[in-house]
Amino acid sequence: MRSLLTVYGSPTPPGKLARALGAVEEHAARLDGWRVDRLSPASPTAWPEDAADRVRSATGLVIASPVFRASFPATLKQLFDQLPVEALRSRPVALLTVAAAPEHALAAERHLRDVLAWFGALTAPNALFLVDRLLAGPELDEQVRADLAALAEQVVALSALPQADRLGPAPLAARRAPGAGVPPRPHPEPRKDPTP
Fold first, then answer.
1. What is the pTM of this model?
2. For 160-175, what is the mean pLDDT?
3. What sign does the CA torsion over 125, 153, 105, 11 have?
4. How far is residue 40's CA from residue 44's CA, in Å, rounded to a whole number?
5. Which of 132, 70, 73, 79 is nearest to 107 (CA)?
6. CA-CA distance, 158 to 123, in Å (whole number)?
7. Among 24-28, 136-140, 141-145, 174-178, which stretch is predicted with the lowest mean pLDDT?
């Protein structure tokens, strides 16, 4: 059975972002052959001890982040800092971001894509950004629900690619690992003083 790991990347108690992520999980759980698991921070400054193992064993991920000061929060950065490169390398990952205003649409996504590129993750081409007021009512709008379902289905589609576990060359971070065979960069020769 394939597994979708959703990552709740907020240091705050579950709210609108968690509600959106819940709709992704509900849809994915109805897909044949998929089980769903959520990874949340144990506290604003720590993740569960098994976080890296859960990321590494997932078939695909949906990372959900609030927009915090034009990027993603430090809580989510702490998770990335404890992951080995192979935990996300060639792993299908979809991005979900939520903020208070549409002007923040690309803020966290842009930075998340940079970090995921460092790992060599197979980041889904279409991220989903939602303004938080769309998640405030008693029922989710049909279009919002459809967009959240489509986000989950991107991960499913990407995981079905042939050899999806090893697409492209190794990311630079993996090639610089000890014993990876990348020779050290030579130091330039010191300049000689032309005067006698």
1. 0.84
2. 72
3. negative
4. 10
5. 70
6. 9
7. 174-178
Residue of 31, 91, 41, 48 lying closest to 65 (CA atoms):
41
Q: What's the start-to-end Cα distance of the chain, in Å?
A: 75
The string of pLDDT tens digits covering residues 90-133 is 999 999 999 998 888 888 999 999 999 999 999 999 999 999 99
Give the CATH number of domain 2-175; options: 3.40.50.740, 3.40.50.1220, 3.40.50.880, 3.40.50.360.
3.40.50.360
Helices (H) then strands (E): counts for the chain: 6, 6
Q: Which residues pair with 129 in a beta bridge?
A: 97
Q: Write down the domain spans for the chain.
A: 2-175
Residue 188: pLDDT band (50, 70, 90) is: very low
